[in-house]
Amino acid sequence: MGDKSAETHAKFLAFLKASEEAVWFLARWFSVNHNRAVQIYPTSKAKTHQEWKKHVDQGDLYMRPEGADKFMRYEVKRLGVDFSGPHDWPFKPKFIVCAKHSYDNASPPPSSYFILNRDMTCMAIARGSTHDKWTVEKRMDSRTNVAQEFYFCPMEHVIFHPVVDEEPF
Fold first, then answer.
1. Closest Cα partner for 115 from 140, 150, 81, 142?
2. What is the CATH number of the domain that holds 15?
3. Is 168 domain-assigned?
4. How many domains does the chain have?
């Protein structure tokens, strides 16, 4: 059991490192291209799987939407697959938002989930405001080979948006 736990934790840390690139990419994109104020909290990494609860993050990205007076929480994920919109979403008809426990335990709950494609040229957005439409299914997490419950958002509530790195000047 110890070896399996250590292997799972090592995989998790590798995925966490890869996701940091996407978080910083979107922070820059929203800040520079869309004039949004953004915040990123420090990332704390557990040395062992047993310590994970002491290192739960406060969210990937906080941003103040245009006209808002407070920062909202956003989660960022990057998939290792290509897509450019709903027509070529590779996991039709399903859209996995996140592990159920991560949303249920988040404080504050995420305003949206930004799911980037491999090249970070398109994102799929699942808004937290559609949470009442989400369903729950138990699946094997392909990253860790551990079964857990996930939230799924109906495709008609997922927004696809190109991520074009234009300079606003």
1. 81
2. 3.40.1350
3. no
4. 1
